Amino acid sequence: MSIVGIACNLLLSACKITAGILFGAVSVVADGFNNLSDCGSGIVSLVSFFIASKKPDKEHPYGHRRAEYIASMAIGFLVLFVAVSLLRESVVKTIDGGLFYADWIVYTLLGVSVAIKSGMFVLYRVFARRLSSDTLRASATDSLCDCIATFAVAVGAVLARFGIGADGFVGIAVSLFIGWQGFRILSDASSKLLGQAPNPKQTEQVKSVILSHGGVLGLHDLHIFCYGDGVNYATVHIEMDASLSALDAHATVDKIEQDVLKDFGIKLTAHLDPVDLNDLEAVELEKTILAEVSQIADGLEIHDFRMIRGAVVKLVFDVGVPYECKLSDAEIYEKTLLVVKRLGDYETAVTVERE
User: Fold this and answer.
1) Domains 197-275 and 279-355 share a fold
2) Average pLDDT, stretch 30-58?
3) pTM above 0.85, yes or no
4) Which distant-in-sequence residues (6+ apart) come within 8 Å of 158 by Cβ?
């Protein structure tokens, strides 16, 4: 796909630049350079596919699929460059108010260009969905922008024949649209490269699979990491009855990891948290603390609760805080200590974590 795109863009660029110079059409020349910049996008895509297809190695044990995100960002920058260039040319043309009179050759060339770019858009979209490729999705968006830009040039050429100098105004509108598309490509790719939150629907599905296994009392700290489309890892803490034998608990955890891999393609690493259901005092105290802590702010929860008895009873637990909570970790920590202090003379070790 990338090689075909490069060839088409080179041909269109050469034809448009030549025709634009012959007929004195600045907008056609600018559209030709737009296609020339798309050759750079194609080269970026080609290189990214080569890098992304490499197998994991010692330096990159999670593979190279994130190379596609970098490629998408490069394409986004190219689209923005084209938008700025087209905007500048359009503003100059609007101020000058010049008209050009195109020959039938120019109209034919622009029409063929729109047809070719429309076909490339469809092909890029089809293969992007089939291969789950962000780079191809970005290339599809780029091709759509090219269609609109070339169509605008054609409209301006037709209006010029009737003495209407609308080419510059149309170009400004198109350049702003292209700039918005480039910004969207950059935003999406950079978000994934930084470590985008997993799909909430998929997260709930993974939770359901884990909780469906016998002996599982609950779970927390489920983290899903994406290293490119189709390369996903996850970690989770699974709560199970402490009275189960180590072999039985281990077998359940193994089965959970296998099911998550089979159903979602996610390589899960599970940590077992034993819960002593026979320690009724600890169970009731945990429920009481959870009820009090949940009043501090919406969405707060506690987990990894342990009651260590000695000369002084020590309570150890984590407070899970949603990212949207406005209270600082320090405020939540202090308020949690006050909750425990009201319940008795306990030594407390609390860890506050956003999740």
Assistant:
1) yes
2) 73
3) no
4) 107
